[in-house]
Here is the input.
Amino acid sequence: MICFSKQGVKIMKVAGRKLMADDAGRKFRTLMVASAFVVASCQASLAQGDADLEAPGLAPFATPASPQPTLFQNVRIFDGRSASLSAPTNVLVRGNTIARISSGPITVEASANVRVIAANGRVLMPGLIDAHWHAFMAATPQMLLMTADTNYLQLLAARQAQATLMRGFTTIRDLGGPVFGLKRAIDEGVMTGPRIYPSGAFISQTSGHGDFRFSFEVPRVTGGPLSHSEVAGVAAIADSPDEVRLRAREQLRQGASQIKLMAGGGIASPYNPIESTQYTEPEIRAAVEAADNWGTYVTVHAYTPRAIQQAVAAGVKCIEHGQLIDEPTAKLLADNGIWWSLQPFMDDENASPLVNPVSQKKAQEVFAGTENAYRLAKKYKIKTAFGTDILFDARVASRQGAILTRMVRWYTPAEALKMATADNGELMALSGFINPYPGKLGVVEEGALADLLLVDGNPLENIKLVEDPDENFLVIMKDGTIYKDTVPK
Ligand SMILES: [Zn+2]
Here is the structure.
């Protein structure tokens, strides 16, 4: 099976091209040759294991060993939900989960080779979750993304993934970009980075927010060659319910944990007004049905009431952005239990850079809506997720935590941190039976996945601590493995 999905696909494509040009007899011969080759390569690699298939001749990757148990002694816990810290507590992590939390001493068998961290009353909290991230695009300039070799860009993305984890973001929901390989490499322990909930390519109509073709790349004939960003897996341009369904299923096939659709105008894209409504209800519904059959959901990029309303009518379960919302539409989200993945977009030194004056003007409209959006999210108690949506800039990406601290304009530090941990964890679970990381995320409780930060200070009193993770996050643990430990010994 693995064989066919790699070598097989490549060969069948070649065969497909030949089939169009050749007569029936030659079609048959081509197919036979292709099939024989596929079978032969399958047989060769079946004996060698999955890793060898990725790098023939090399030793398979070492499977990440089950991490050594860790005992945090004397921590005060922010559990992801409460507004206050626990009394001094001990926490035992075994494998990739939190095995025990106890105010009394935890004893472990001498043979267990436990790593003991004497925390001295410091704060243990869940790893942070960014519900709107682009691992492929966060730190790389837009023009480079549109012109450079994709393999080079993947290496930059891998380096940024490591930086993301070292900022204390142990999970990200990726809202568009070719990150299936990166996710796999991280999960296999080949690279270091956060858990990734991938959407794969975002799906956009022609001229929509995901249509990043150059102006000379139209008209495109239906079924004609794909544009650069489509080949790279950044975008999938689809018009009509059938095309949307096909592209959605392709993302699911590659391992998307949710589907992302562009349902309205955007800032960084040049060919659509911010006021535009994108797709029709039947087109969005086609993606919703494909996702729903796979146990998961569709989330849409949308700013305006009209775009949001159409998406809700089509059955989406989450709205990205929404800064230009009005009161009746906010009420609609609340009444239908729709998630609102909202970002504190502001015009300060941590705004993503925009070169194009049209984009700059659109950004100003959106910045102006941020205040009202949070006011309505609070007023109607809408399920709100925290995300940053940083694009195209390594310096701004390095300020991911600082963007979380903006939230204290509307929320207490505890509320803001709850959103970036327990609440976002709940949103991750919306991926249902295809959730790539089943288990509880964003909380410190027995049985939850062990993604933990040890903070030198109390973030519920001083949320600014998350702005400087190098200094203030002394331990960063993901899936029970410690990636950083600078606790003074
Ligand atoms: Zn985005």
About this structure: Residues 132, 134, 175, 389 surround zinc ion (CB under 6 Å).
